[in-house]
Amino acid sequence: MDVALRIADEYALDSAWAWAFPAGSLAANVASSTPTVKDSLSALALSIARLGHRGPDAFPTLFTESSSPFATHQSASLFPRDSVVRQLVSLFWIAYAGSFLLYWSVSTASYYALFDRRLEHHPRFLKNQVAKEIALSMKAMPGMAALIVPWFVGEVRGTTLLYDSVEEYGATWFKGTALDGYGPWAYMAFSVVTFMVFTDWCIYWIHRWLHIPFLYKRLHKPHHRWLVPTPFSALAFHPVDGYAQSMPYHIIPYILPINKFVYFGMFMIVNLWTILIHDGDMISGHFLEKFINSPAHHTLHHLYFTCNYGQYFTWADKYGGSYRPPREDLDPIHDAVKNMERKRKLAEKEAKQALREQNKQFSDSSIDGDQESDSGYEGSEAELDKKSEVKVSHVRTISKDESSDIRRRR
């Protein structure tokens, strides 16, 4: 995270910290024989702001070269770059913004490109479920970011075994052999495999322990509201639940030397995988399903609760006796399609009933209209015009007869 923090500092956070807390904002006169309360408080605030400050020599990767156009902002804030307080706050916003962007980009793409939208008609798919998944994810993100920030600060301040150069480890692995020179790359591959095995094994047990009734009720139950999950449920956790399942990723760089760029890449893959296994895909019958904990396995976990706790692989579930292989007949899409067909038939039945009611009303109206008018609709313009013509004709006839009678009398 030191590289991410340095980039964020150079392009945004240096200016933000300088604006919010300018360097001369505290004037503590601690040398005075009788300092005031204000001076004492200022001195305390200054010591907090500079907590952990040791300068660029201690953390060279956090500082730019003097020729950098951004170097002038480094000393413009009351909080130097290597202040523990500043690092805690800055890394919180980096972690939160990163999870926010990753969630919305990958979850949205997976929802519209991979997720079978017919599953939303499954009988156990909740009303407004996607909105509820998103709401819980948005609520959980700040809490999870705050919990993992101390681990990131440890990485930035050099307390882990993360290293920069490929050549730092494994140089003597194949010394004197035909593979001499490939030792560092062999060690890097070894660290990746160890990372995967260690984190998968730890997460299996953490996840399984979270299903113990005492912990499940208090922590893990919110995530299992989604019996038929969508990609938007990937971060819909209780914050402590999400943090607990992420701990192996933060612990391993403290016990195993890993190249920091490889570690960052693996950490990104972990987050992508977490989203992708929630896409509801139940493709089964392929060779890899025996070894890879795919979306099909995780879909069964949400449906049946007591199986497939692993993250990447199936070996831990097989060892722990909780493995349940995907089968075509277990695919929730079958129940979803049946429910869609039931809804279609019900809609057709209701439409036919409505049509019969409409025809009945029209028929009753026609019978009443025959008794009142020739047009079939009493009060229509045609009927009114016809009645008017009859009245006018009748008036004219009467007028002619009266005129004849008058002439004869005369």
Structure description:
- This protein is an all-alpha fold.
- Helices cover 59% and strands 1% of the residues.
- It has 12 helices and 2 strands, in the order ααααβαααβααααα.
- A two-stranded parallel sheet has the order 1-2.
- The protein is globular and about 95 Å long.
Shape: globular
- Rounded to the nearest angstrom, the radius of gyration is 38 Å
End-to-end Cα distance: 124 Å
- Tell me which oligomeric state these chains represent: single chain
Mean pLDDT: 78
What secondary-structure arrangement, pairings included, does this model have?
Blueprint: H1 2-20, H2 37-49, H3 84-113, H4 129-156, E1 162-163, H5 183-209, H6 213-220, H7 239-251, E2 258-259, H8 260-276, H9 295-304, H10 315-320, H11 333-372, H12 381-409
Helix pairs in contact: 1-3, 3-4, 3-8, 4-7, 5-7
Task: Give a summary of the structure in a few sentences.
The chain is an all-alpha fold and 410 residues long.
